[in-house]
Design brief:
Elements lengths: L1 H16 L2 H8 L3 H15 L4 E4 L2 E4 L1 H28 L5 E6 L1 H18 L4 E6 L2 H9 L5 E5 L7 E9 L1 E5 L1 H6 L5 H4 L2 E4 L4 H12 L8 E3 L2 H9 L4 E5 L4 H6 L3 E2 L9 E8 L6 H14 L1
Parallel strand pairs: 3-4, 3-5, 8-9, 8-10
Antiparallel strand pairs: 1-2, 5-12, 6-12, 7-10, 7-11
Length: 293
């Protein structure tokens, strides 16, 4: 195939310039080498492609039939080469990332903002999925990378930890003041994420391991809902501490240190073990890792 490509490239340039010398200069080879290449192609095809004139060469009737097809092929190859050059130089490309709404808002947005400023010509597509769904999409090769929270079984993927997170219990001062008892474990209104969420499973497991069972009275679909419900005094929410720093600083929420302390876990990026990442995806992965150093 490489041989035939070289034959047709030589044919294309000789036809384009109408001159063997000009074609030789473009190819960085000698004129006799160009002549031999054209002869080889003519022998392969069984037709004469050029006739000599006093000014150079011109296409025969058969050469004229072949030329538009070769010209189109060379132009398409040139477009492909230019596109690859842009991708290598990070002036083009596309990334598909999957992330949960909570991690997107509280973790990924600042990192995406700086990446897009550095590489404005790379297209970034973000899919909103749970961590479980993200890994499924990754397994199906429908996305390049996913941002997930552990623990999850990532044995089929490469997982790079980017940050440690701490789950805590919070409530508003007004809610705590309204409690008729200080026994939050027994009397508190607990608000958790819905079943099937990796954070909910993590909290349930560790509370059970410590001998505690908190049946939630309110179940919500994402952590932002938990934060807002806690702020208006609806009960006690289990949230990620890093994601409520402003509320804790403003004291619209209070960390309940008297409740069981949960172990830290991690947020990271996952990608397939046996799939070569695109240049755009590699650049984003490198950007994420660099920001965490």
């Amino acid at each position: 195939m490489d041989l035939f490509l070289e034959l047709y490239k030589t044919f294309y340039l000789v036809a384009k310039y109408g001159n063997i010398s000009a074609a030789a200069q473009n190819l960085y080879i000698t004129q006799p080498a160009v002549t031999r290449t054209i002869q080889k192609l003519e022998e392969t095809l069984g037709v004469t492609l050029f006739s000599r004139t006093s000014r150079g060469v011109r296409l025969t009737a058969e050469g004229k039939l072949l030329y538009p097809y070769v010209e189109k092929a060379m132009q398409e190859l040139s477009k492909g080469e230019e596109l690859l050059k842009k991708i290598v130089q990070k002036e083009s490309g596309k990334i598909i990332i999957s992330v949960s709404p909570t991690l997107f808002k509280h973790f990924l947005i600042p990192k995406l903002e700086s990446y897009i400023k550095d590489y404005p010509k790379i297209e970034v597509n973000v899919v909103s999925k749970t961590s479980f769904e993200s890994l499924q999409l990754l397994d199906e090769e429908k996305i390049d990378l996913c941002i997930i929270s552990r623990p999850l079984d990532c044995s089929n993927f490469i997982f790079i930890e980017l940050s440690e997170i701490q789950d805590i219990f919070v409530a508003s001062k007004s809610y705590l003041a309204s409690m008729e008892t200080s026994d939050l474990l027994r009397e508190g209104t607990f608000m958790f994420l819905e079943n099937g969420n990796v954070t909910r499973e993590y909290i349930d497991k560790h509370l059970k391991d410590m001998g505690f069972i908190f049946p939630p009275k309110i179940v919500l679909g994402n952590m932002d809902f938990l934060i807002e419900f806690a702020k208006i005094g609806m009960g006690i929410s289990a949230v990620i501490k890093d994601f409520v720093q402003q509320e804790l600083a403003e004291e619209t929420l209070v960390e309940l240190s008297m409740l069981p302390a949960l172990p830290k876990r991690s947020i990271g990026v996952a990608y397939p073990k046996n799939t070569e990442l695109s240049i755009a995806a590699k650049s984003f992965l490198e950007h994420l890792v660099k920001l965490q150093k």
